[in-house]
């Protein structure tokens, strides 16, 4: 017992000493900064978040039934949110705590991945970039599954790198759990998992001369694969039920992608090269106005040249693995997008974010020879990310900002007990109920209220889409024939009209 106590004290002392080393302190500081930015970078609830919150308030079985019949996502994040709502409530901050934790945890894992893929310097720079990366901050502040997607994909790649280097059971276990979490979190993550499976096949073939090493890797790969298939068995009928319900309802996975893609990103049309580059720019520098994105996207030849320089500089297996995980899912969804344009959306291949940050960190630390040059390059790139973060969060021209919170608060301040809100499109129901549960509200399509007293408020959003712009314009014209327009208000991606009787 005395020896065990001494060994425990020695391990604790070694861990404490490790935390005081410059590298550890830098990573801890980056994590603290990243956490602070993610807490401060708040915005109103997005309508998909409102849907998740509504589902989380159901009983657990009822929530799963609702996911089977109305949704297209696996149940992991919804299950975590279901627990969160019961523990700490459903405020804007509370429902985003799981994503906040996952987004913050991504920062030190970026260090670990960069260190084990290349070296400590690359890991430190990756952590620094991850702490301020606009896109990573954005989805750390959304009550959806995308921050989980980023974290689990990064952990899976990190664990695979360690498996290919050492082949330890612990690393196999981490890889298997991370891959399972990926698949239970987002169906599109199957593309990441398939790329990594292909990487194992390539690694086994490359070790043919060392038969013992090849057999050990093959055994670990097969054992992990079998266990993963067994663990995935409950998800198979769940996914099939969702697919069948989606097809029966005639949606066919053709629902529009989140607005804000703009002309350069393809919109509802088949994806283009410019659209693909736009999505990759989003993944690094965040969301910005369509005009800004059009200007940045025009630089795509320079981006292609930079990518070729990176690949030419370092052709290690680690680099090839990260490049494959970053680009193959993008290419696959680009091809699928030719038939289903709505599916070519950066959220669905959000695993590209940590991979691009790792590749950029590798480039910054391998191209420069001196520490001063590395520091200057890293500082300059970090400042560019900070600039992108500020613009993303505060620029009202960002087409991904939707101020439903402000719009509904404005209506509530002026609305009386006899007033009614009519909103377009109809799928704003959950966000209206989240922010204004006591407000008399109905989607357009129902008969207009005929009582003599009270005013009518109209709230329109997604007006860049011709269908909703036409519906809203028709409603405004109809009301204008017999009602007087009292007030008009415009907020980020949301417009309000107030009519008297």
Would you write up a description of this structure?
There is one protein chain. The protein is mostly helical and 501 residues long. It has a five-stranded mixed β-sheet with strand order 2-1-3-5-4, sandwiched between helices. It is built from 23 helices and five strands. The longest helix has 24 residues, at 371-394. It has helices spanning 2-19, 22-40, 47-56, 60-70, 76-88, 92-95, 97-117, 120-132, 134-140, 146-166, 169-185, 190-206, 211-232, 235-248, 273-285, 290-297, 300-313, 317-337, 352-367, 371-394, 404-414, 429-435, 466-482, and strands spanning 420-424, 441-443, 456-461, 484-491, 494-500. Residues 259-267 have low confidence and may be disordered. The chain is globular, with a radius of gyration of 25 Å.
Give a nutshell description of this structure:
With 501 residues, this protein is mainly α. It has 23 helices and 5 strands. A 5-stranded mixed β-sheet has the order 2-1-3-5-4, with helices on both faces.
């Amino acid at each position: 017992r005395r020896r065990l106590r001494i060994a425990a004290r020695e391990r604790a002392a070694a861990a404490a000493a490790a935390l005081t080393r410059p590298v550890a302190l830098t990573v801890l500081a980056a994590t603290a900064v990243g956490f602070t930015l993610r807490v401060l970078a708040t915005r109103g609830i997005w309508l998909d978040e409102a849907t998740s919150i509504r589902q989380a308030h159901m009983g657990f079985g009822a929530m799963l039934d609702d996911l089977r019949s109305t949704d297209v996502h696996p149940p992991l994040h919804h299950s975590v949110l279901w627990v969160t709502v019961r523990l700490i409530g459903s405020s804007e901050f509370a429902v985003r705590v799981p994503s906040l934790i996952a987004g913050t945890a991504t920062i030190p894992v970026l260090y670990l991945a960069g260190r084990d893929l290349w070296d400590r310097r690359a890991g430190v720079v990756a952590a620094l970039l991850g702490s301020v990366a606009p896109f990573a901050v954005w989805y750390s502040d959304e009550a959806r599954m995308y921050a989980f997607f980023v974290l689990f994909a990064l952990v899976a790649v990190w664990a695979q790198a360690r498996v290919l280097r050492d082949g330890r059971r612990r690393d196999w276990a981490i890889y298997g759990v991370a891959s399972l979490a990926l698949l239970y979190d987002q169906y599109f993550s199957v593309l990441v998992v398939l790329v990594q499976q292909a990487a194992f096949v390539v690694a086994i073939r490359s070790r043919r001369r060392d038969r013992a090493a090849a057999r050990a890797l093959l055994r670990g790969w097969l054992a992990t694969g079998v266990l993963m298939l067994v663990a995935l068995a409950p998800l198979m009928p769940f996914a099939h039920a969702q697919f069948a319900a989606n097809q029966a309802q005639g949606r066919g996975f053709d629902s529009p992608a989140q607005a804000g893609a703009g002309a350069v990103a393809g919109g509802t049309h088949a994806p283009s090269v410019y659209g693909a580059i736009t999505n990759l720019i989003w993944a690094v520098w965040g969301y910005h106005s369509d005009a800004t994105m059009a200007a940045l996207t025009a630089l795509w030849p320079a981006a292609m040249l930079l990518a070729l320089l990176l690949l030419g500089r370092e052709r290690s297996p680690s680099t090839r693995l990260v490049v494959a995980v970053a680009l193959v899912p993008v290419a696959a969804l680009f091809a699928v997008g030719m038939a289903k344009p709505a599916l070519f959306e950066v959220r669905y291949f959000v695993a590209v974010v940590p991979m691009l940050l790792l590749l950029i960190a590798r480039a910054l630390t391998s191209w420069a020879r001196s520490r001063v040059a590395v520091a200057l390059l890293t500082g300059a790139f970090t400042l560019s990310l900070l600039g992108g973060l500020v613009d993303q969060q505060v620029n009202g021209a960002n087409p991904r900002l939707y101020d439903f919170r402000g719009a509904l608060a404005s209506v509530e301040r002026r609305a009386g007990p006899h007033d009614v809100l009519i909103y377009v499109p109809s799928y704003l129901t959950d966000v209206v109920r989240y922010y204004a549960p006591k407000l008399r509200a109905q989607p357009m399509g129902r008969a207009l209220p005929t009582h003599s007293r009270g005013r009518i408020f109209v709230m329109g959003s997604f007006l860049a889409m011709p269908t909703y712009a036409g519906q809203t314009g028709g409603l405004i014209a109809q009301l204008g024939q017999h009602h007087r327009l009292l007030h008009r208000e415009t907020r980020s991606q949301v417009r309000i009209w107030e009519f008297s009787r």
